[in-house]
Specification:
The protein is mainly α. It contains 3 helices and no strands. Helices cover 54% and strands 0% of the residues.
């Protein structure tokens, strides 16, 4: 949207998207956060291209939609960053089933409905 007046706006957007993705992947590698992979860079670049082309074809009438999506994505990323330490930790995952349901080992769950058995 900010570059609509530029002649090669799509190319510029894809280059900036690729560089941003490369920076994130590099930081993941350097700080051993997550899994750094070249396929992430390629998929992010293709996604940037698809988004830039779609925005160009849709024109100004959908600018409010793009702004809303960007704000929503920003809020979701902020929430995921805040929840980061609790996400993906298998020791903090608790399986919950209906009270009285049979456990895989043949036992019955406690009255809390929380299974103490780990698969």
């Amino acid at each position: 949207m900010l570059l609509e007046h530029r002649r090669r706006a799509i190319v510029l957007v894809v280059v900036v998207g690729s560089l941003t993705s490369a920076a994130v992947e590099t930081l993941q590698y350097v700080f051993a956060l997550g899994h750094s992979d070249i396929s992430d860079l390629l998929v992010n670049t293709v996604g940037t291209l698809a988004g830039a082309v779609t925005a160009r074809l849709a024109g100004q009438r959908l600018y409010p939609v793009w702004i809303g999506l960007a704000l929503t994505a920003s809020v979701l990323v902020a929430i995921l960053v805040l929840l980061g330490p609790r996400l993906g930790d298998a020791d903090k995952v608790v399986e919950v089933a209906a009270p009285g349901a049979a456990e895989p080992g043949g036992g019955v769950q406690a009255a809390t409905g929380v299974s103490s058995a780990r698969p």
